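I hope you will forgive my troubling you with a question about protein structure. I set the record out below, with my sincere thanks for your time.
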Amino acid sequence: MRVFNNISIDEANVLSEFNAGVKNIKGKYLKENIDKYNSIVISKLLIKNAIPYNAIITLTIKLFKEQIGILEFYRNYYTSILVDEFQDTNLLSYWLLNFLITDKTNILLLGDSLQRILWIYRSRTQFTFTCTKYIQFTTYFIGEELSFCIQ
């Protein structure tokens, strides 16, 4: 584990609390603190050639929000999206997917509802609701373990 002497206790707490917010699905907290989190990552960690996993996603979201042309490039380039292990999708990944999905996107979500049951059911419901704004598709549930969507 690397030690970063350039981070204050307050900054370390912001990073830690943000990561806890991701783990505990605290959407409102994450939306309110994503800019502060990104600011600390950019000013304190990137200069030390370090980046946390969550920051890879949050900085991509920042890029897509600020550079619409880049977002449109990726929306056009990736016309089909396959998400394996969907049960492991966290709220940040879900937000990222929402940026990439358009009315022309083909999407296949594969997951095991026996793993991380709370999140897959929340995400399946929320994601289905979000996708139906853009895409006509049908969700199939086979027992409790398997579900899939067909456009």
Summary: Residues 117-125 have pLDDT under 50 and may be disordered. DSSP finds six helices and four strands in the chain. Helices lie at 9-23, 27-45, 53-66, 68-77, 91-100, 117-132. The beta strands are 80-83, 106-109, 138-142, 146-150.
